[in-house]
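Morning. Coffee machine broken again, so started the prediction first thing and wrote up yesterday's gels while waiting. Chain of 807 residues, entered below exactly as on the submission form.
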Amino acid sequence: MKNSGGEEKANAAHLGPFDQSCRPVVRSSGVLLAAALLILAGAVLFGSFLFGSNVLLYKDIGADSVNDSYPNLIHLSNYIRKQGLPSWSFCVGMGQSLFYQTGNLVWQPVVWLPKALIAYALVFQHLGKILVAGLFFLRFLQLRGLNFWSSCLGSVLLGLSSYMCMGSCWLVNADEVVGFTFLLFAIETAIARGRWLYLALAVGLIGLITVFHLYLAAVLLLLYVPGRLIETNGWKPASIFPACLRLAAVAFLGVGLAAFVGLGSLYSILNSPRGSGTIANFSWGAVPSIFQFEAPLYYVTAALRPFSSDLLGTGDGFRGWQNYFEAPIVYCGLLTLLLLPQVFLRATRRQRLLHGLFLGLILVPVIWPWFRYAFWLFHGGYFRTFSLFSILGTITLSMTALSRLMDKRILGLWTLGGTLLLLLGVLYLPGVELSTLVSQKLRGTVAVCLILYAGLLAAAARLPQGRTLAQWIILLMTAAELILFDGVTITRPTVTKHELDERTGYNDATVDAVRDIKASEHGFFRVVKTWGSGPAKIPSLNDAMAFDFYGTMSYSSFNNLNYIRFLIALDALSSDDLPTEAQWSLGLVGQPLLSMFACEKYVITTDPVPFQEAARYDFVKSYGKISLFRNKAFLPFGLAFDRYIPEDVFLQMPGWAKQLGLMHAAVLSDKDTSERGTLTRLSLDELKQQMRDIPLPEVMAVRRLSALEMRSFRQTRMEGTVRLDRKGVMVFQMPFDAGWRARVDGRVTSIFKVDVGLLGVVLEAGEHAVELRYSAPFLYSGAAVTLISLSILLFSVWRWPRIRWAS
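Came back before lunch.
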């Protein structure tokens, strides 16, 4: 890894034109100033979370923080202590792989804390991400040649942008800001200095957010790298094309680094209704035609949101297009709106062309939504990351204009005046209806800020002796503006620290009930909880993760596809709104027969009357308003059947008959010819006769006699014994997943799909020892790719620490 001084100089010289216009302004004082501003502004902005009574768990439209993110963080915290690497969990739906969340061990460090500290630590995690993202962006701007003040201001604008502040509620937003600013810094470091290591690391880290983010990283690289090389070196295909190939090879190495998590995560995501495309995304309808326009409210929202995320209302009170989160999130300081047109002044023809291309790339998908659908590969019309890319480009170009103003006094007063009038005209769009949409107080504040900024910019250009003072005023005023406007964004209804200590929400009496159940019971069984304890307005469906029990409800964008197929087949999901219910799944709650079939042993409820009236439930204990019941008709995990119903016949049966039919026979598809073997096939008439003639208690007694006798149980490994008089199929009441491996009497045996989505194993007559183990699909192949990539990376860093650009 050694490199002599002569080689260092030769390499620097060999960078040629790439380095000349990208030489960084290395000033440690800039880093210190930016860090101080980010820390101080963040402390003021999030003061009520740091020193006050709130935690970063929202109760309004941001309820995903308390209904999804928080239970997942608690569950991961418990899981890594008890099980290790995220794998299979029965706390999610009827069971599901958690492997796609492995990246959260890096991106959400609060999971390494005990459950009791997670909610309090969320604000520190978010402030840490603000600091890291801001400093990466500072170095990125410095590498582009921007001066001290502009780089500092740019870092503050990004760190306190609306996208980052939304990340206090939707965690993935903050992760994206950190990941993509690191990627930009890495690209500039590679281009300006030839140091390519950061690029591979940045791509690898982005791949840990989700595997889909590798695609988003590829989009950013494809848009930025060629444009940047053309900007710095001119249109020279002979040098630009090889440079792009080298950087692409480095980025591909980063993909390999993420393969350990990425391959398994890709399987988990594709094995979900959303990822497989089986069920369309609930938020978006059909793809619009290529030049189709949207409704007027959409364009009003797109025009006003750059001024403030809250100009059209906040949280549940948002009055714009779609909702508070799905509308454009592009506010990054009012100063950027005034400065953006200035970047075209005294720029080269090449620079103007590239700047105009950027504006086209962010405006065309807004004007014609088809192009935004294309950005998302026609899987939705989101703004989300598209908004972040717009913010990154807007701040970069506006700070470039500011740097020219401060260094060379380049400012077009007529352009500035025209921009100000245009922005005020947009801000005060005529229309009677608009007055009911816009916050009048906030609009007046925006107008005053725009006028003040315009005056400061004009003064900085015309009064050289007062330029330093103007720089300080602009910097501090921008920080104050961001704190003021973002304060509206983040100070929405949240959980309080007092609520965390009270016996309410995820700390209600359910904690006592679950503790008592675990003290008296062992092995596998499920608990039905008939309501959500989450404190948000939207009901929580992930209580099993928060309270650490096995249930069937689940709210997840990536619910197991076979779990959803099973619920659909048993009519446990409404076909009226299937895309929504596939993500917000009530599981088997309210389905008594299915709950018994799926190992329901206990019920925790706030409405005891139905269970007091049902003969099969015994009252156990009362915990204030909460009651605990035990199901005497509980069926164990692993049921054996020597008869089957063809799947096509089963699916034509009415819902009540399907549920009862699962107690009598296994359901096999026509594909499972080898598994059926000598099993007896039941016709529809024979099944009906059995359901009429044999009482349900007798059927359940037979099921218990031939059920698996559990010897040991862990989430990813279970062992037991079973005795069968005839060859049969053992149905395990959990979704089928290719990661499961079965051994019968020590010999590997195949698993297959049974009951439309559950896991089955064929057993011969006799007594057998059955073992099931789970490991995430592609875990070992992904680990091998990562190890190979890491080996190549280490060798390449030693052998070629820098890219030698052709001059």
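The chain has three domains: 12-494, 500-631, 639-776. Going to sketch it on the whiteboard this afternoon.
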